[in-house]
Amino acid sequence: MRLKIAWATDPGLEREENEDSVMVWRNKAGLDTLIVVCDGMGGHAAGQHASSIAVKTVTKVMAEDGQEGPDVDRLKRALKQANTAVFEAAHENPDWSGMGSTMVIAAIRNGECALLNVGDSPAYLIRNREAKLISRDIVTIDLRLPDRVTVRLSAAAAQARADALKEKKPPAKKGGPA
Fold it and tell me: Domain limits at 52?
């Protein structure tokens, strides 16, 4: 299987600072490819620090766990440790209180891919010039994470959905008053 990987980051329309962090590994950690993409949340509350800490922690855990292959449980363990690292960093530095990060992890070996995403950062598979969304927004996740961080992720996802719904106006009904 031939695999081409591409990535780009952008601060978006609302911020001047880019809060994204990306790590792409080839032939490490018992995988053909490991892709970790994090988008920091919190702006002034150090979203860039959160995404950087999360990426570094996930890659460190994956490199040192002694396991091989794409396994969702393996990704969940790395996610849990990254979450703890971000939470502890925020606790140690009051200026970073409230920081967080979305995360997408793709682990690939021998044509098999394990994908994990938290938050509203999407993952796409592009085949024959057609993009297909292969992730879904996660509002709650099945891990025992510190309540403060879980609530923060849930609130951010809920707010993003609410904002998106506000921008979409329902179509006017035909044949009667709107």
Answer: 20-163
Q: Domain for residue 175, yes or no?
A: no
pLDDT > 70 fraction of the chain, expressed in percent and rounded: 72
Q: Is 7 among the domain residues? A: no
- Please state, in angstroms and rounded to a whole number, the distance separating the CA atoms of residues 54 and 90: 12
Render pLDDT for 118-143 as a digit per residue (tens, 0 to 9).
887 888 888 888 888 887 765 444 34
Tokens (6 digits) for 178: 């709107």
Whether residue 4 is contained in a domain is answered as no
CB burial of residue 84 (10 Å; 0-12, 13-18, 19+): middle
Whichever domain contains 112, its CATH number is 3.60.40.10
Contact of 70 with 114, CB cutoff 8 Å: yes
CA proximity to 9, closest of 136, 121, 127: 121
- Residue recorded with tokens 């490991």: 34
| pLDDT tens, residue by residue, 12-56 | 776 677 788 999 999 999 999 999 999 888 665 688 899 999 999
- 37 phi and psi, to 5 degrees? -125, 125
Local structure of 60: helix, strand or coil: helix
How many structural domains does the chain have?
A: 1
pTM over 0.85: no
